[in-house]
Structures are given as C-alpha cells and as structure tokens.
Amino acid sequence: MPALLPIRLGVNIDHVATVRNARGGRHPDPLRVAEIAIAAGADGITAHLREDRRHIVDDDIARLKARIAKPLNLEMAATAEMVGIAKKVRPHAACIVPERRAERTTEGGLDVAGQRESLRAAVGELSACGIRVSLFIAAEPAQIEAARAIAAPVIEIHTGAWCDAVAAGNVTAAAAEFDRIVRGAALAKSSGLEVHAGHGLDFATAETIAALPEIVELNIGHFLIGAAIFDGLGAAVRSMRLAMDRGRAKAGAAGAAGAAR
Ligand code: PXP
Fold first, then answer.
1. Interval between CA 93 and ligand 1 midpoint (Å)
2. What residue segments make up the domains of the chain, in order of their start?
3. Is 115 exposed, middle or buried (0-12, 13-18, 19+ CB in 10 A)?
4. 75 is catalytic
5. CATH for the stretch 8-260
6. Could you identify the atom of ligand 1 that is nearest to the CA of residue 160?
C-alpha cells in the first residue's frame, strides 16, 4: 500500500478567547497562540465566530486572516450574518455548524437532510467566493448523502459521542460509535467527499482516528488548550518567580546603597 499523506491538524483556539474574555483586554491573545500553534506544526487555525460572540470576536477573525501564515478555517452557523462576514473576510475554509445559544459547545451535527435548501444556498454562496466549505455532521448515511447532494466538497465528522463514550469507559458504546465513524468515513470518501473529523479529541483518540486513511484533517481545540496549561504553567510560574526575585533584589541593592551613603 502506498504511504498515506500526513493527516492535517487544525488547532481550534476558541478557548484562548474564552480565557481572554473572562477579564476583557487582550491577554491571552488568540493571534499569538495561533502563531505558536503554527510554529509547533499546526497546519491551520480554526476559530468559531458564534452569534453571541462568547469567545472569538469579529476583530480576532480579521486579525487572524490578516496575520497567520497558514489557512484559517472559520466555523460558523449558516445564518445571513455569518455568510456575509465570511464573504467579506474570505477565510480559506468555512465549516458550517449547528448553533444553539444555550449549548456549551457544538453538541450535535447539522441536520443537512432536513435543511437541504437553506444549506445548499449557503454552500453555494461561500463556494462561489472560493471558500472551501465543510459541513459538520454525524457519521450518518442520510447526512452524508445529503451533504453530497447539496454539493458540499467536505464533511467534518462529529467525534463527540465517540470521545464521550471513551472518556466514560463505556467500551460497548465506544466501539459502536467508532464503527459508525469508520463506516461513515468510507461512505463519504467513496461519495467523493473530503473527510475531516473533530470534537472532543485527545491524544489517545486522535492517535486512534488518525489511522483511518479516509480522514485527511482533524480539528482539535479544548483538549489542547487544557494540555497547554499542564505543559506551560510550570514555565510561566518559574518566569514569575524570577521576575519577583529580580524586583526584590533591586530593592535590596537600593537599600544597601542607601545604607552605604
Ligand atoms: N470541529 C468543530 C466543527 C467544532 O465545532 C469544534 C468545537 O468548536 C471542534 C472541531 C473542536 O472540538 P474540541 O474543542 O472539543 O476539540
């Protein structure tokens, strides 16, 4: 078998903005985090501009589009407002997701089969601007078929239910969900769709799903931002310790100079 191409990693930076927005101001800046992610090997940056702007805001999208060196994937609901913003910003890609204000995260896939006409229009308008459109769906044959029928070039398979079952230690449910993903990815690829996946992935589940040859891109956010705390907080605390010690040493030196005068 020929070697597979490397699987792409899109890093979702929404929750950097969640932390920033907890205080207002610019720190931590999602743009700076995007640059760090790209320097570390991310193939693209994903950001979800929600209707309520709870994390990423319009200015983040404008700055990311202007400054990052890799593709920007804008996650968005298929509303007139968001389609208008995407047409203005022109990200490399747009991933259409269902969105409910009360949800904590994107809880389920799009019902493409139930909203063919409105989604067909959004896919057409975005595609006409040169934006690569993907639809975030469960790995259900009816949804995959509907995505193909409305001429979406890409689907992103929602991996949340599988990841939740793995995290809960529910081996039977996890096996059933993974089987659904495997069959969905094969069906989508054979229907001519490019296949991505994401939601709830961690190191172990990303390693497992990366073995599926049909899947060419994973989009991962929440786990990575959490892992960055574990990997990065020690270094940040050491820098703070040093800054405080330098401040103390200056005061000590000033005191000693005063006493010597
Ligand atoms: N892909 C899509 C379409 C999403 O909506 C999300 C969550 O914003 C992700 C991937 C990333 O999910 P997570 O933050 O759980 O890694």
1. 15
2. 8-260
3. middle
4. yes
5. 3.20.20.70
6. 15
